[in-house]
Amino acid sequence: MAAWGQRLAGVRGVLLDISGVLFDGAEGSGVPIAGSVEAVARLKRSRLKVRFCTNESQKSLGDLVELLQQLGFDISEGEVTAPAPATCLILKERGLRPYLLISDGIRSEFDQIDTSNPNCVVIADAGESFSYQNMNKAFQVLMELENPVLISLGKGRYYKETSGLMLDVGAYVKALEYACGIEAEVVGKPSPEYFKSALQEMGLEAHQAIMIGDDIVGDVGGAQRCGMRALQVRTGKFRPSDEHHPEVKADGYVDNLAEAVDLLLQHADK
Amino acid sequence: MAARRALKAVLVDLSGTLHIEDAAVPGAQEALKRLRSASVVVRFVTNTTKESKRDLLERLKKLEFDISEDEIFTSLTAARSLVEQKQVRPMLLVDDRALPDFNGIQTSDPNAVVVGLAPERFHYQILNQAFRLLLDGAPLIAIHKARYYKRKDGLALGPGPFVTALEYATDIKATVVGKPEKTFFLEALRGTGCEPEETVMIGDDCRDDVGGAQNVGMLGILVKTAPGAPFARLTGSLRGSRTCFFQSPPGAGKASIEQEMKKKLIHLLT
């Protein structure tokens, strides 16, 4: 592989995944990944632009940012691209009234949305709310529709909590897709529109930005398909087999965010 | 198309064809009697995973169907054979009533996952346990992958969507033992001395009954006993195949199985 200097040349902005890169979630709270608090602070002091791009869909953006601040991170809501606010825009634009298959933690994001007489389903990482009953309700709503619309906040396969790996929303999206013979519209990584909206907020072109994430498909593959570069960290949901993924090859693998920032500060934008 | 020989065996689906839950499809008992008098081998093949063979037989007898236990071949029977063959200890995501069919199988410290239709077990925690076993290398055995089934209160999610969820999250493929798998239809004929080319399958599921039977060289007859089913979506995937459709006129669904069996059998036998 080419030297880091070559691989990171011309990078002017960094897009950071949150869960598994900044911290590992635990029931209701979380634990910062060693070195990540300082790494974010160092990035922010540098000339590089920084933005956060998450598929978090169990907590509201406000709760997520508050948790991160409690863990010591320098972060504010305006710096985060998150799927729930993006979904609300789409719902309003298209006059959609969703049945919400979501956790209670994120329900407040949809306070302004009309959910009467639903004409689509919105599915997020609902955790314990992924009961058979709730899944069946979503299924029935979709089967009643002439043109079933299923909007999914991300499509991740699993994520990591301190207790181990956890099924993510993608598994349940697949279940509904299979049951109804339809395909979901994904709001979140790896959808190109999602990465583009984050880039737009940063005022950068894809080739000027690099994504740092723990998901080889959602973060790395998605960003690369948009023309960005991408590094995978060996934290969070990373598994050794990711480095030999049949389809996705990261522009680099690093032990954690701290190492990624060391390399970026040394080599980027030169 | 293989040369069609004289009709020697008839495979009949149970749920949705002979009965819907605890009610016989009107006319089905008489139809079965007529079939018996046609001197063909009859086997009852079902993906009903909620009930053991014994329970099935009891229900059918109560509904006055003339059926014996050794004529029934279920997907649970097929699953048990595979578990024994692989010598694994399964985590059984099946309905309590199906458990008698797994008597004597060791299930402590599981190293395999068997998924049937078990709405009360398809909760997040349990599916997550299954997910973690699969990541550790446990094989995934699906009793069948039906997308949904008909209940008195409408359509409800079958096991297929949940199997698909686990497949997507773990990147492994389930071994499916029920309809529409080829081995299921061939096993059902074992001991009858009949060939697939001499067999006709009658069922209410376009993909699982008709499509599956046709794949091994049988003829497939679709009965339309579920009037609420969204047929356009169901049949879309089979357009252009050799499916025999018998679309009853509206309101005439009641006698459908008798009429259709009669028509088809007269055609085949003469």
From TrEMBL, chain A:
<dbReference type="Pfam" id="PF13344">
    <property type="entry name" value="Hydrolase_6"/>
</dbReference>
<dbReference type="GO" id="GO:0006796">
    <property type="term" value="P:phosphate-containing compound metabolic process"/>
</dbReference>
<dbReference type="InterPro" id="IPR036412">
    <property type="entry name" value="HAD-like_sf"/>
</dbReference>
<keyword id="KW-0539">Nucleus</keyword>
<keyword id="KW-0963">Cytoplasm</keyword>
<dbReference type="InterPro" id="IPR006355">
    <property type="entry name" value="LHPP/HDHD2"/>
</dbReference>
<protein>
    <recommendedName>
        <fullName>Phospholysine phosphohistidine inorganic pyrophosphate phosphatase</fullName>
        <ecNumber>3.6.1.1</ecNumber>
    </recommendedName>
</protein>
<keyword id="KW-0479">Metal-binding</keyword>
<dbReference type="GO" id="GO:0004427">
    <property type="term" value="F:inorganic diphosphate phosphatase activity"/>
</dbReference>
<dbReference type="GO" id="GO:0016791">
    <property type="term" value="F:phosphatase activity"/>
</dbReference>
<dbReference type="GO" id="GO:0016607">
    <property type="term" value="C:nuclear speck"/>
</dbReference>
<comment type="similarity">
    <text>Belongs to the HAD-like hydrolase superfamily.</text>
</comment>
<dbReference type="GO" id="GO:0042803">
    <property type="term" value="F:protein homodimerization activity"/>
</dbReference>
<dbReference type="GO" id="GO:0046872">
    <property type="term" value="F:metal ion binding"/>
</dbReference>
<dbReference type="InterPro" id="IPR006357">
    <property type="entry name" value="HAD-SF_hydro_IIA"/>
</dbReference>
<comment type="function">
    <text>Phosphatase that hydrolyzes imidodiphosphate, 3-phosphohistidine and 6-phospholysine. Has broad substrate specificity and can also hydrolyze inorganic diphosphate, but with lower efficiency.</text>
</comment>
<dbReference type="Pfam" id="PF13242">
    <property type="entry name" value="Hydrolase_like"/>
</dbReference>
<dbReference type="InterPro" id="IPR023214">
    <property type="entry name" value="HAD_sf"/>
</dbReference>
<dbReference type="GO" id="GO:0005829">
    <property type="term" value="C:cytosol"/>
</dbReference>
<keyword id="KW-0378">Hydrolase</keyword>
<dbReference type="InterPro" id="IPR006439">
    <property type="entry name" value="HAD-SF_hydro_IA"/>
</dbReference>
<keyword id="KW-0460">Magnesium</keyword>
TrEMBL record, chain B:
<dbReference type="GO" id="GO:0016791">
    <property type="term" value="F:phosphatase activity"/>
</dbReference>
<dbReference type="Pfam" id="PF13344">
    <property type="entry name" value="Hydrolase_6"/>
</dbReference>
<dbReference type="GO" id="GO:0046872">
    <property type="term" value="F:metal ion binding"/>
</dbReference>
<dbReference type="InterPro" id="IPR006355">
    <property type="entry name" value="LHPP/HDHD2"/>
</dbReference>
<dbReference type="InterPro" id="IPR023214">
    <property type="entry name" value="HAD_sf"/>
</dbReference>
<dbReference type="InterPro" id="IPR002645">
    <property type="entry name" value="STAS_dom"/>
</dbReference>
<dbReference type="InterPro" id="IPR036412">
    <property type="entry name" value="HAD-like_sf"/>
</dbReference>
<dbReference type="Pfam" id="PF13242">
    <property type="entry name" value="Hydrolase_like"/>
</dbReference>
<keyword id="KW-0460">Magnesium</keyword>
<keyword id="KW-0479">Metal-binding</keyword>
<keyword id="KW-0175">Coiled coil</keyword>
<dbReference type="GO" id="GO:0019899">
    <property type="term" value="F:enzyme binding"/>
</dbReference>
<comment type="similarity">
    <text>Belongs to the HAD-like hydrolase superfamily.</text>
</comment>
<protein>
    <recommendedName>
        <fullName>Haloacid dehalogenase-like hydrolase domain-containing protein 2</fullName>
    </recommendedName>
</protein>
<dbReference type="InterPro" id="IPR006357">
    <property type="entry name" value="HAD-SF_hydro_IIA"/>
</dbReference>
<feature type="domain" description="STAS">
    <location>
        <begin position="1"/>
        <end position="83"/>
    </location>
</feature>
<dbReference type="GO" id="GO:0005737">
    <property type="term" value="C:cytoplasm"/>
</dbReference>
